[in-house]
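Section 5: illustrative case.
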C-alpha cells in the first residue's frame, strides 16, 4: 500500500499577486509566494486602531511625519511580503515601490499590529521575521485587544530586538523613531474587555 502525498501548493509570483490584488475589492497578503485573504476586524480591534491613529495624528501635526491605517500595503525586502499592517508610521520622506506598485510603502519606521486570535501566531512569528528585514523598521508594536497589554520591540544599534511590555493604564509606549508616546489609557479608551 502506498502512502498518498498532498498536492503541492501553488506558489504565485509577485507580479501575479499584484495583478490580482490591485483591482480586487478585498485585501489579501502575499507571503513568499502564497496568498492569504484577510478577514474583517472585530469592533474592539477597530476602536483600538482608531485610538492609536488619533494619538499619532495629534503628535504628528506640524511635523514631517506620516501615519497610515489599515489600507496601505507595506512591502518587505525583495517582495517576499506584501501586507496591510493595522498602522504604519514614519518621519521624513515616504518611499513607495514605483517599479511594481506605487501604493506599497517601503520604509516604515513603526509598524503596529492589533492582535486577533486568528492572526496572533502569524503576527508574532512569520510576519515579524519578514518585517525585521525592513532596514527602516525601528519599532514593531503588538497590541492585545482582549486585555490591556502592549509589546514594543525596538531595534538596537547592533541589530538585535529588545522587548518592552506595558500593561498598566499609567504606562506609555515610547516610539522614539517618530518621537511619540502612546498612553495605554488612551489606546484602550472605550474598549470593553471580555469578562
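Designed sequence:
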Amino acid at each position: 500500500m502506498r502512502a498518498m502525498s498532498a498536492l503541492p501548493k501553488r506558489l504565485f509570483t509577485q507580479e501575479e499577486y499584484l495583478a490580482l490584488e490591485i483591482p480586487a475589492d478585498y485585501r489579501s497578503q502575499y507571503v513568499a509566494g502564497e496568498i492569504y485573504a484577510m478577514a474583517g476586524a472585530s469592533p474592539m480591534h477597530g476602536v483600538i486602531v482608531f485610538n492609536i491613529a488619533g494619538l499619532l495624528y495629534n503628535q504628528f501635526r506640524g511635523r514631517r511625519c506620516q501615519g497610515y491605517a489599515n489600507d496601505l500595503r507595506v512591502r518587505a525586502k525583495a517582495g517576499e511580503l506584501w501586507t496591510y499592517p493595522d498602522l504604519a508610521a514614519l518621519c521624513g520622506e515616504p518611499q513607495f515601490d514605483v517599479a511594481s506598485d506605487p501604493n506599497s510603502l517601503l520604509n516604515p519606521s513603526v509598524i503596529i499590529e492589533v492582535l486577533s486570535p486568528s492572526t496572533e501566531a502569524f503576527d508574532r512569528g512569520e510576519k515579524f521575521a519578514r518585517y525585521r528585514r525592513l532596514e527602516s523598521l525601528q519599532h514593531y508594536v503588538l497590541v492585545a485587544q482582549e486585555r490591556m497589554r502592549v509589546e514594543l520591540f525596538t531595534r538596537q544599534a547592533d541589530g538585535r530586538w529588545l522587548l518592552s511590555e506595558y500593561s498598566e493604564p499609567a504606562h506609555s509606549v515610547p516610539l522614539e523613531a517618530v518621537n511619540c508616546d502612546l498612553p495605554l489609557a488612551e489606546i484602550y479608551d472605550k474598549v470593553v474587555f471580555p469578562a
